[in-house]
Design a protein that fits this description.
By secondary structure, this protein is mostly helical. The chain has 7 helices and no strands. Helix 1 packs parallel to helix 4 and helix 6 packs antiparallel against helix 7.
Length: 173
């Protein structure tokens, strides 16, 4: 029971770190779930994150995956609620007032200040995932080729990612 409370609390406070998107919280989520609480391994974390990216919905469904791995369905439910409910309420309240506030000087400063914070947090998330997922020349080449394909706008990102996953699977089988 104490570990369920710890799981819920961990995802509750992690939910408030999602500045600029869910990718920004990945470094701390990985640290908490792998190193601090040992709910899963680094490889399981990356695999879980990858699997949750294939599903429709928010990219922070990895919280549900971690909760499930740690405590089954109850853990998945608690982690998901802790990750999404508080920030959804904050977003509803803020968005209700933001159109009125956004022309004020302090609001413009807040918007501008959050851009580099969000970019930095997302870069940290990419680094954290790459540190575990890119482990040799083949995975590095696949990651680079996929990034180039996705950035070209000629190939739909889903196809590029699925192709890279298929190639990686074939090469390691």
């Amino acid at each position: 029971m104490a570990d369920l409370a710890r799981l819920t609390w961990t995802f509750l406070w992690l939910s408030f770190l999602c500045v600029g998107g869910g990718l920004g919280v990945i470094p701390e989520m990985e640290r908490q779930t792998v190193s601090v609480h040992r709910w899963l391994t680094a490889r399981e974390f990356v695999d879980g994150y990858t699997l949750t990216q294939l599903t429709p919905g928010p990219n922070m469904l990895v919280a549900v995956f971690v909760g499930y791995r740690a405590h089954g369905l109850v853990g998945a439910l608690l982690a998901g609620l802790a990750m999404f409910l508080p920030t959804s309420i904050v977003a509803i309240v803020v968005s209700h007032h933001w159109q009125r506030w956004r022309t004020r000087p302090w609001a413009l400063l807040v918007e501008r200040a959050l851009i580099p914070v969000g970019v930095g947090l997302m870069a940290g998330g990419v680094y954290t995932l790459a540190r575990t997922a890119v482990h040799d020349g083949v995975t590095a080449a696949l990651a680079l080729a996929t990034a180039l394909a996705v950035s070209s706008d000629r190939i739909p990102p889903v196809l590029a990612i699925l192709a890279a996953g298929g190639i990686g699977w074939l090469l390691t089988s």
